[in-house]
Each structure stands twice: as C-alpha cells, then as structure tokens.
Amino acid sequence: MSPQFHLFSLLPPELRTQIWLSAFSTPPPTFYFYKPGAWKLTPCSCSLDSSALDFVFDHKVYDAVQLDIPLFFVNREARAIARAWMRENDVEEVEDGEREERVVFRKEFNPVKDVLFMPYDQWEKFACEGVNRGFANDALGRYLHSGEQWYQHLQVLYLIIDPPSDLRPVNDGMKIQPRWNLKDSEEFETRPVFAVKQSALE
Asked: Which residues form the 2EXR domain (predicted)?
C-alpha cells in the first residue's frame, strides 16, 4: 500500500493548511551551551549620572542551535506554512552552500523558554563571571550600578546526572550547535534543584 495520499491536493485549502500545521509543534526547552562573555558593561539608563554603568547579561553571545524542518522542502504550500511557524518561534533561515538543501534553520537562545547548559567543570566560571567582570580594565575605578544580587532572573536549575559524552558544543565556524532539549533528556536524569519565585521577574 502506498504511504502517499494522492488526493491531498484536492482538499480545500483551509483543510490542507490545518493538516500542515498539525505537523508542527511548539519547540520544547532547548539546551544552549555556555561560553564566557555574556556580561556586558553598558551605560546605566536608570541613573542621572552619565558616567554610571550597568552590567547586562547579553544572552545573544551564545551560539544558535540547528533545527530540522523537513516540511520546508515538500512544496511551496508547505514552505509557506513552515515559514509562518518559523516566524512565530523565532527560527531563522540561513543559506549554506555546503549542504544539499542549501538551507540551515537556526534558533537563538530564549532566556524565558530555553536551558543554558554547562559542564560541571565550568560551573564555577559561570557563577563568578559577573563578579570577575567588575575587575576588568574597563570597569576598574568606575561607578557600577548593580541589582540586588547576581542572576536574579534565574528560575530553574537542572542538575544532569551522567550526561551523554556527545553533549558538548561543536566548533565548526558556523556558530550553530546541534540541538538538545528536555525531551531528549529521557536518555539521562534531570533534576530541578531550586527555583526562584516569580516576583524576581517583576
């Protein structure tokens, strides 16, 4: 029996659209690999002193992850639906001349939805990075406007027990990493260790 439904093109456009959309889902929380350099020194907008500075955690320094969207290559109709889904989920289409499809789909880190992953041996570097940044040459001797505490927007911390050996960043020059997410974590154990109350985001 053929797996194809040859009468699909004869269905009403609205029904075809619903069928295409049913093939997509909201991406689960995705792992992004930690690397230093996220703390930025910027002018403080909440101070009358023009020399006042603020530390900003710039999550855009983290490499994007690659997504597979096979329906993008089915036909024009499916591609239009795929692009609409990509816009809703902040997925970007990037040309890549080295691949047969010549297109790569990348998704930037979303601090509200995604997970920042770091190996155990980098945890201390991550925890101290904001403090150490205050002793850099461009920060010494200058007034720094800071919040009540570091990482006040951190909501959940996952402790991954015995992570897979291939759960690590790839350095291929494209700044796009393979995709890992919490659904994949069925292969290993995850534990939420603590959560900051919601008022920290208010």
From this structure: 5-105
Q: Is the pLDDT of residue 112 over 80?
A: yes
Q: Which helix (H) or strand (E) holds 93?
A: strand 91-95
**pLDDT tens digit string along 13-70?**
888 888 888 888 877 788 888 888 888 777 776 655 666 677 778 888 888 888 888 8
Q: Inform me whether the pLDDT recorded for 145 exceeds 60.
A: no
Domain count, the chain: 1
| Sign of the torsion angle spanned by Cα atoms 161, 162, 167, 171 | positive
Residue 191 placed within a domain: yes
Q: Residue written as tokens 């990075």?
A: 129
Cα gap 154→14, rounded to integer Å:
42
Amino acid at 145: H
Residue 17 is classified by DSSP as: H
**H-assigned helices in 91-178:** 123-133
Identify whether 116 is part of a domain. Answer: yes
Per the prediction, the chain carries an average pLDDT of 73
Separation CA 155–CA 196 (nearest Å): 5
Task: Give the structural domain span for 170.
Answer: 12-19+26-201
